[in-house]
User: What shape does this take?
Amino acid sequence: DAKTTQPTSMDCAEGRAANLPCNHSTISGNEYVYWYRQIHSQGPQYIIHGLKNNETNEMASLIITEDRKSSTLILPHATLRDTAVYYCIVRVSGTYKYIFGTGTRLKVLA
Amino acid sequence: DTEVTQTPKHLVMGMTNKKSLKCEQHMGHRAMYWYKQKAKKPPELMFVYSYEKLSINESVPSRFSPECPNSSLLNLHLHALQPEDSALYLCASSLLGQGANSPLHFGNGTRLTVT
Assistant: This one.
């Protein structure tokens, strides 16, 4: 199964861009990368997903390297409410198995 | 608010009790999932149902028994649990077929404490 690795924690100043990296070096050609965040005691919240092209929505941007071995989630103007654990997930090809990475605890500082 | 509703929000049960966790969605999703999350750890997949049939069981002990009575409902029956089974149990759903790369939609979970 494809695995993802993420830094354990990161800090970001309020108003600055938060760049959260994820390594998925064993990803297969047709496996998507998904990003979620989880605020304490709530279920994970979907942010964005992509295959090989960069993606943007109202919450964030997703940059996937050309070799697809890594990706970066960008929160363009972080706010205190963006403090959460961010998970990078790969869905195992041919299955409905979504495997969570270890997650990055992002703290946005005032 | 989420579109996946889980009940109860909190549950305390003894090791000899039988209880059930419930999950409901009305988004027309035909895949439903149970995840278990221990404190400060990522969610771990337990079961996946697709078209109301069990398609993935991640070697979960038999004291956890899933059930999918229809396309909108997912239950997790609990019996003879151990204290180490205390965790947040998360339900999720997703599209199948042409929407197969659609994301998971999670409920807010049931926090289970086994005494």
